[in-house]
Every structure is written in C-alpha cells, then in structure tokens.
C-alpha cells in the first residue's frame, strides 16, 4: 500500500511541476514547497488546483485496483499537440521480470526513487525544444485503463471566470478514442520507479509541430 500511495503522490507533484516548468500558467500562480526533501512547485489557483486534485483522486482509486495502464498529460495549443508526459504502469509479472515484494521494499528506497524522478523532471527543460510562447497553451489529462477494466469518466473544465484555457479529463481503454497526440518522435525514457508489484516509467514525447513553429519564428 505505501508504494501505491507514493505513486499517487509523485504523479500529483509531477503534474504541478509540468505545468510550472513548461510555463503553461504564470509562475506567480505557483508556490514553492518541499517533498521527498527536494523543492517542488504547487499551483495555488483554486480552480486549477481543484481540477488536479480531482484527477489525482480518480487515478488513486484506479491504481489501488491495479486498473491503470498509463497516465498521460498532453500539452497542446489549440488543436496542435506539442508534448506529452506518459506515466506507464507495468506489471513485472507480465514481462517476465522478477517481482519484488512491495512490503519488503524499504520506504526510504521508494522515496529515493521518486525523488530521482522528480529531480529529472525539474531539469527536463534542458532536453526539450521550447514551447510556443502563447496564452493559448493548455493541457489535457488522460488515464488509460487496462483492457479488462473500463469505466466512464466525466469531462471537467475550469470555471468560466478563470483566465486559463480549458482542460479535459477522460478515461480510455487501450488506444481507443484518444485525442491526437505527439507521434513524430519516439518517447524518451526519463526514469523508472521499481515499486515491487508494478513499475512506473516516465516518458516524454515531443511533436513535430514544435520544431516547425521554431523554424517559422527563426525565419521571420
């Protein structure tokens, strides 16, 4: 159970971190905090924070039931996908890898792995092309369930008085009904958390639209 709860926590912090480091919202909407003994950022805008909390609550419920295959955070401008951050939940038993008893993994070992993932995420800017400077940037959150577990998931959005783009919240099975996502470049592995009964791998993927945008700006 500690590994499940920590996985939920690290995804929540990662979600706030991605919104901060990729400048989806202004820096003044974030507070500096500490988790796993490292600095992290949390959005303090009520409607955004409420949305993230609802999304993570839904993820936590499915993680406990071992239903989650992937958690995907898409960054896009209008209809153009720019980046996606993929948290892939893999069962070692499905790949033939040795299974570690999660109850025998020391808590400090799990925390160290999660700290390493967040530290790498904090410096991911150096590896990615810059996003288009625009107030039209937004994000969407998707949770992909394993084939045998499918549930409905209502859409959600911010209140109309919030000066931020809408975000959507959804569940899919496999690749069914997913929005257009970054397909040009292969996903790059950032870090793996080995939590015993499951592993959490973080990947980042960029779309060709970012490169085209950069070339257009340089050509002006």
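Sequence proposed for the structure above (220 residues):
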């Amino acid at each position: 159970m500690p590994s499940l709860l920590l996985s939920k926590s690290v995804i929540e912090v990662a979600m706030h971190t991605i919104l901060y480091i990729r400048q989806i919202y202004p820096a003044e909407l974030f507070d500096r905090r500490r988790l796993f003994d490292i600095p992290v950022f949390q959005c303090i805008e009520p409607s955004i924070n409420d949305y993230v909390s609802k999304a993570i609550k839904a993820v936590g419920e499915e993680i406990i039931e071992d239903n989650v295959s992937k958690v995907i955070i898409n960054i896009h401008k209008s209809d153009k996908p720019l980046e996606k951050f993929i948290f892939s939940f893999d069962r070692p038993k499905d790949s033939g890898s040795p299974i570690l008893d999660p109850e025998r993994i020391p808590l400090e070992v799990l925390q160290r792995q999660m700290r390493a993932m967040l530290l790498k995420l904090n410096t991911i800017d150096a590896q990615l092309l810059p996003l288009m400077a625009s107030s039209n940037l937004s994000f969407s959150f998707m949770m992909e369930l394993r084939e045998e577990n499918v549930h409905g998931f209502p859409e959600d959005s911010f209140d109309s008085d919030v000066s931020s783009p809408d975000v959507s919240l959804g569940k899919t099975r496999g690749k069914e009904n997913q929005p257009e996502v970054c397909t040009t470049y292969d996903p790059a592995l950032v870090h793996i958390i080995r939590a015993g009964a499951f592993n959490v791998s973080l990947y980042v993927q960029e779309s060709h639209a970012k490169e085209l945008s950069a070339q257009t700006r340089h050509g002006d």
